[in-house]
Amino acid sequence: MDNVIVYSKLQNSILLVNKKNTDFMGTNKSKEVTAVKINTSNFEIAEPELLQNYFKLNPWEITTDSEDENFKKLLMNNLPEEVIKNKIVNPLMSNSLD
Questions:
Q1: N or C: which end of the chain has fewer CB within 10 A?
Q2: Domain residues of the chain, as ranges?
Q3: Contact, 41 vs 94, CB < 8 A?
């Protein structure tokens, strides 16, 4: 989970992105950033989708560093390591923009 960041939150949902891709936020490349949405009440993991699609519809709030750490702990305590790897980390790592 060191290569991903909990980028934003909205009610019971969080969006995770590849940490390297945060360097491109606010540029034309930000339109290519993929996010994985997770519902923190039931730990349902959505398929990866373009980050900009989420921000078009709702007022997502950017997370702080401490929130990022807390959400990651929550995920690691409630999801099997294989699920984290296969449904979150690997899809986000395959979308590195660097």
A1: C
A2: 4-93
A3: no
Six-digit token string for 9: 């939150």
Q: Are 16 and 35 in contact (CB under 8 A)?
A: yes
State the pLDDT confidence band at 26, using cuts at 50, 70 and 90: confident
How far from chain centre, in Å, is Cα 45? Answer: 10
Residue type, 59: P
Tokens 């990022």 identify what position?
A: 68
Q: What is the pLDDT of residue 25?
A: 81
In angstroms, how far apart are the furthest CA atoms of the chain?
36
Look-up of token digits 């099997």: 80
Question: Which residues on adjacent β-strands are paired with residue 18?
Answer: 4
Return the closest-CA partner of residue 79 out of 30, 36, 49, 23: 36
Q: Which residues of 26-48 are buried (b: 16+ CB within 10 A; e: fewer)?
A: eeeebeebbbbbbebeeeebeeb
